[in-house]
Amino acid sequence: MSTLHEAFAAARAEDRAALVGYLPAGFPSVDGAVDAIRVMVENGVDVVEIGLPYSDPLMDGPTIQAAAEQSLRQGTTTRDVLATAEAVARTGAPTLVMTYWNPIERYGIERFARDLASAGGTGVITPDLTPEEAGPWIAATDEAGLDRVFLVAPSSSDERIDVVCGITSGFVYAASLMGVTGVKSVSAAAPELVARTRPRTSLPIAVGLGVSTPDQAADVAAYADGVIVGSAFVRLLLDAETPAAGVAAVGRLAAELAEGVRRHAHV
């Protein structure tokens, strides 16, 4: 059992959903991202997603795009992302990288999987990698012992959900909104998507895109195994007057969300 599976199992044993927190590497700086993520973990985030900043982020909303652009302007590289993963993994929280496919291909598929595993990372979320093109990645992650996370969406057919679940090994990422990420509201399609996915996998199902408040976290925690929050954390860092104030605000939100996922008995 990987550390990722252990985290979901521990949450389930407490009759709650796991809280998954996202921040892009290199934002507001390389060290600043590590500081913010450590505080997230200290305040109740169970699983960490580290974003690999990319110049053409099709799925990201304006908040995460702004943070990624700042990170790229400051020169953040894939090596910095791996160093961030290594620092975060030392907290003991399962640490995944969320990245578009192009940076992995450019870095080297086997090399990326091997280097992330060496850094203590537990898995990778690849939002734009289709199952049909995933063969080399499946081989590389199997070899390195990394968990793979693929996405399902409200538009996914039952057959497509079957295919995605068949190649996923970490958790199934249920994207609750059609379109880009951002602090909006969780789509009414999310519970139905989880219900359609549930019979097709024994893996945990985590819902992302749109969760930003403790109430939303509590609502999602009632039917999903994991609650993913990204843009809300990023927004606090973007709006903060100082890096220290941003880290403090991130810690407060993490604690509130951690309370949210514990509020309703998990089904």
TrEMBL record:
SUPFAM superfamilies: Ribulose-phoshate binding barrel
Function: The alpha subunit is responsible for the aldol cleavage of indoleglycerol phosphate to indole and glyceraldehyde 3-phosphate.
Entry protein name: Tryptophan synthase alpha chain
Assembly notes: Tetramer of two alpha and two beta chains.
EC identifiers of the protein: 4.2.1.20
Active site per the UniProt annotation: 49 (proton acceptor), 60 (proton acceptor)
Pathway: Amino-acid biosynthesis; L-tryptophan biosynthesis; L-tryptophan from chorismate: step 5/5
One of the record's GO molecular function terms: tryptophan synthase activity
Domain of life assignment: Bacteria
Designated gene of the protein: trpA
Catalytic activity from the UniProt record: (1S,2R)-1-C-(indol-3-yl)glycerol 3-phosphate + L-serine = D-glyceraldehyde 3-phosphate + L-tryptophan + H2O
Keywords: Amino-acid biosynthesis, Aromatic amino acid biosynthesis, Lyase, Tryptophan biosynthesis
Organism expressing this protein natively: Longivirga aurantiaca
Family label: Belongs to the TrpA family.
